[in-house]
Specification:
single chain; 6-stranded mixed β-sheet; Alpha-Beta Plaits; Elongation Factor Tu (Ef-tu), domain 3; 3 domains; 385 residues; alpha+beta
């Protein structure tokens, strides 16, 4: 769902607004969609201009839809490990980790960023699925002493090469010491925040977690005021940049029937650790038997795509359908149509050619390495700065 909105528009109280909603409308948000039962801005005008704003300067995005599952209690660390195949034994207080949440079959039900705020306090910053209910259900029969809830926490993303300069204008030079995938506690004119060096953009950036929704508009305006002299624009998560960077979108590039090995995310699965986790036996079996399909990068020939795909496109070889395009877009920087696709393992080798059927035509395509841009993630980690 994506359509123009204003303050009076809505589907009722079952779809929530973030603390930044009114500010985004004031600053030019024209389209919204629904994510985690909340409105998320999807357009501030031309998506290509949004991309250039992101990669050249900075954008501020309302990602309050990234709801937090907070896990506390004496057994919080053990319970959090139960949810994910990634080994958390060396995750320090103040550190963040990209993790997968798996079901008993080894399928992925979410791919959040985990934040360890205290020894026994964790947040799972969610993609689009109801992990709060999943975690509460698991806890009911886990026999562990934990409390699981959704706190009043709403993040903003400040992303782009000038994001560090803007953060320094807001918080002083000490913010530069915040390392990639680490967090710390800050205060801005009495507004309590948690800030992490993370983001869903493939660019240098920060996520700013507001701890009291009553200050949403105030926080938005303070960041925009500090950033405007440096080129900051209101924006939305960029499909162009995230596909360039090979970043995955839940429900598009993976779902509960997708396992980590199909996505080449073996590094997020530790089958040798002594700790148990949900899906361990299934993932051991999948690892031993091998996968039958794999995610690949594609370059699709032809005229520039008019926008991101809104349905899965079939991928064929000869007269046989061998997979589907999950995310596709035209990159104005690379001057190519680029895509992520899930295909049969025998069609996954670099250089393999295939056909992609779009709603308008059938196009030749070729399997290429992914990500398409900045493969060593030097931009995201800040090692180019």
């Amino acid at each position: 769902m994506s359509r123009p909105m204003n303050k009076a528009f809505g589907f009722g109280t079952q779809i929530r607004k973030s603390p930044f909603f009114d500010a985004t409308v004031r600053w030019g948000a024209t389209d919204f969609s629904v994510y985690n039962h909340m409105y998320i801005p999807r357009s501030f005008g031309d998506p290509e201009q949004n991309f250039w704003n992101l990669v050249n300067d900075a954008i501020l995005c309302d990602v309050g839809v990234e709801r937090q599952v907070e896990i506390t209690g004496p057994d919080a660390a053990q319970f959090t490990q139960l949810l994910t195949p990634r080994n958390l034994s060396e995750c320090a207080v103040g550190q963040c980790k990209y993790v997968l949440i798996t079901n008993t079959a080894g399928g992925i039900i979410n791919d959040p960023v985990l934040l360890r705020l205290e020894e026994n306090r964790f947040w799972l910053s969610l993609a689009d699925s109801d992990v709060l209910l999943w975690a509460q259900g698991i806890a009911t029969h886990a026999g562990l002493d934990v409390d699981i809830r959704e706190p009043d926490v709403s993040p903003l993303q400040l992303q782009g090469p000038k994001s560090g300069d803007i953060m320094e204008a807001l918080f002083g030079p000490g913010i530069r010491d915040l390392k990639y995938y680490w967090l710390d506690h800050f205060e801005l004119d009495g507004i309590e925040l948690v800030i992490s060096r993370t983001g869903w953009s493939s660019e240098l950036g920060y996520e700013i977690y507001l701890l009291d929704g009553a200050h949403g508009e105030q926080l938005w305006e303070k960041i925009m005021a500090a950033g405007e002299p440096l080129g900051l624009k209101p924006g939305h998560t960029s499909s162009i940049r995230r596909i360039e960077g090979g970043m995955l979108s839940y429900h598009a590039d993976m779902d509960a029937d997708t396992n980590p090995f199909e996505l080449s995310l073996d590094r997020l699965v530790d089958l040798d650790m002594s700790a148990d986790f949900i899906g361990k036996a299934s993932l051991q079996s999948i690892k031993q038997n091998g996968v039958t399909r794999s995610q690949v990068g594609l370059v699709i020939e032809g005229e520039p795509l008019s926008g991101p795909n809104t349905e899965f496109w079939s991928v064929s070889s000869g007269d046989k359908i061998v997979g589907k395009v999950t995310s596709a877009v035209y990159s104005p920087r690379l001057k190519q149509n680029i895509a992520l696709a899930m295909v049969s393992i025998d069609c996954a080798d670099i250089g393999t050619t295939c056909l992609v059927t779009t709603p308008d035509d059938q196009r030749a395509a070729k399997v290429v390495p992914k990500p398409f841009y900045d493969p060593k993630k030097r931009i995201t980690s800040g090692t180019t700065q």
